[in-house]
Specification:
globular, single chain, mainly alpha, about 325 residues, 12 helices
């Protein structure tokens, strides 16, 4: 039997495009808009049974593209229903918040875009998937900059329009490359909903508890820094022992490095006394301790969800 020359790599750098862009936008522009966009996206995702993330696990268990297309149709219907429920709840309970509806609309469009992004990967066209997700990140930056008005005002419908363009592009590419969406509805995604809910909600829940305990002055950039790491580690299932070796090593190094930086910034403030914090974008230096804590928390959550310390004798090693 030939030995495997290297461990399998399941990470997809494009998974981190959106959270990384939101971290940059939170640092350079209004962090409240970045957080609001996450809340809108998460609300629609939760109300649609986390279908835009659950499709990846569903695809992994489906042998034919006809089943995959049926899953995509089911996910889109769930997301439309989730978006309508979120909009209704926002109208009823957030009447004074003029940003509620555009944030829900933007969240719905991001869910739809992510579904077609996963669909393109399932169809084997990873280049188009990366291109569509990269366009989404670029349109997200453009939308954030266009939404910013004079003297702190903003118009989030411009952001919705830009995200809508990116979602439309992803849908067109997905339908063109994936032979449309022919096929009956497939409910496999409903059985993957509990797994997707845990994978998506674990880090935000832990981060919320940490932020409540630390009570920092700014939390958007640190939160998205941790979410970026979680996105890079995401897989549909827990990794096998062979696949988890590089992941475990990387997460351990990340955890140790962020802990060391946090200790330095917290207990040895004299080392940063010569740095002009006002020259850094968004008071980056002031947010670094919180960012270190949340990145370490993200590393722990990623290990809990995807890491593996068991040794499987049936797997081949170098």
């Amino acid at each position: 039997m030939p030995k495997l020359k290297r461990a399998l790599r399941l990470s997809r750098p494009s998974d981190a495009f959106v959270p990384f862009v939101l971290a940059i936008c939170a640092l350079l522009w209004n962090p409240n808009i970045s957080l609001g966009l996450f809340v809108g996206c998460f609300a629609v995702s939760a109300l649609s049974l986390f279908s835009c993330f659950g499709v990846r696990a569903a695809f992994a268990m489906q042998p034919s593209m006809r089943s995959v297309r049926g899953t995509v149709k089911c996910a889109l219907l769930l997301q439309l229903a989730g978006g309508l429920i979120a909009a209704l709840l926002g109208t009823l309970f957030l009447k004074g918040e003029r940003d509620a509806l555009p944030l829900v609309a933007a969240g719905l469009l991001l869910n739809i875009e992510h579904t077609f992004y996963e669909y393109l990967y399932a169809a084997g066209d990873w280049r188009s998937a990366m291109l569509s997700h990269g366009l989404t990140a670029a349109f997200l930056i453009a939308g954030m900059s266009l939404a910013k008005g004079p003297e702190g005002s903003h118009d989030l419908w411009k952001l919705v329009a830009m995200i809508g363009i990116s979602a439309a592009v992803s849908a067109v590419i997905g339908c063109a490359m994936g032979d449309g969406l022919k096929g009956r509805l497939n409910a496999q995604i409903l059985r993957c909903a509990p797994r997707a809910a845990l994978q998506v909600a674990l880090y935000p829940a832990i981060a919320l508890l940490i932020l409540w305990a630390m009570n920092p002055t700014s939390c958007a950039f640190p939160f998205f820094a941790g979410w970026t790491l979680c996105a890079l580690c995401r897989t549909p299932f827990r990794r096998s022992s062979m696949e988890a070796l590089p992941l475990n090593r990387s997460l351990l190094i990340t955890f140790a490095a962020t802990a060391a930086v946090w200790v330095v910034l917290t207990f040895i403030p004299g080392l940063t006394a010569g740095i002009d914090a006002s020259s850094l974008p968004g008071s980056l230096l002031a947010q670094l301790p919180t960012a270190c804590v949340l990145v370490a928390a993200a590393a722990a959550c990623s290990f809990a969800l995807y890491g593996n310390l068991k040794k499987n004798k049936d797997e081949y090693h170098e």
